[in-house]
Amino acid sequence: MDWLTLLNSNRRRTSTMDADHRVEFERDYDRSIFSTPVKRLQDKTQVFPLEPHDAVRTRLTHSLEVSAVSRGLGIAIGKWLLSKDEISPGMERQIEAIAGTSGLIHDLGNPPFGHAGEEAIREWFGNKGAKKLSQDLSKHEQCIQDLLKFEGNAQTLRLVAKLQILADFKGLNLTYGTLSAARKYIAPSHEADDQHKDHAMSKPGFFASENDLVEQIEKETGTRGARNPITFLVEAADDIVYLVADIEDGIKKGIVTWQQIEDQMRSGKANSKNAKEILERKDRILKGGKKKLTPDLPDDYHGSAFRTAAISILVPDAIETFKRRYSKIMAGAYKGELVEDGRCVGLIKLFKTIGRTKIYCTAPNLKLEIMGRKVIHDLLDIFWEGASVLSSKGELSTVDFPGRIGALLSRNYRQVFCQARTDAPDLPESYQRYQLVTDYICGMTDTFAKQLHEQLTNG
Fold this sequence. Notes:
About 60% of the residues lie in helices and about 0% in strands. With about 450 residues, the protein is an all-alpha fold.
């Protein structure tokens, strides 16, 4: 791979807007942040569904934070590449912009209720049975696995490239460079394996409906069979932000105390130089130039200072790991993750353990996830009945209940379904109908899904 090809600023459709002070990748960021899918993130789950505490993160605040950290990583690596004569002046600005945009849009495809929502969709298709799907999607193994292994990352690519209709069916019409960097995983669903040695192959990266698009992206950016190097930076930013921020949110919600977190950081294998450095930096932040720490500070003060200190340790480590692995990354031979391959890997494992054992498993959170599962299953049942009878030309008849249900499906997504019948007649029509339903469900916010469920099931 080479940077001149990776930083491909062409679009699937030539922009109708005149050139201005921005580089094309900065225009990607601007059109993304003003888009409807980004707005919807303000009412989508990060960790805690339907969270009333306004200081606890939604998927939008998480995405903005990932974007900021991604951009910072892009700045650092861009400067380093420039100093090594790997890129020409001005290209560092492009790397920064792509990283920021990819961080912003990385979770757009997630359904309501976060990862529990993804699980619920996979479970719903699993309950239909592989045999039933095989009958519907005969000889289309990728289509079957797209549904059984439904993945929000693959839905993100579909969303930004097709589902946002304005002038045509090319979505946000982002540059090839940005589309490439936004692809966290690179395997089709029938080749993805969670035990794969290559992390980029561990989850589905795209659906059969986007096969041609992915082929074009890889051709335009020279990334065939490999991740875009910027993707590693965005993934690291996402990992760093969620691991640290979830702990901070747990403290804000009163799920854990700061003392419990500090004790775990000081105990056993976690009692490392890096853990001590975070605690020391946290105290320096809270001292604010004073010699002593003010006693009896609220826990959320400690949580916020911890988050700042931890990110300030983990980000430089990711930068150094990228530099150390640079040759392999550019050769498409690096199969790992930056945060799992650095000197701070012990911290990463500790924070994952805290999240798993202290934050995600609380009774209120589990109850809301179970509620979200019920909502999604019921909505899939209802709207599949409508999608299954919708005319392939989008014609509606409300003389019976299935037709009335079909009329409630988003007009935009019905248009995409009809266009798919024209553009991809080789794909099974039932697969495209299943996608119509998942497109609609994934586009819902938590509140909308819950209220619609109430309206359609018990008033």
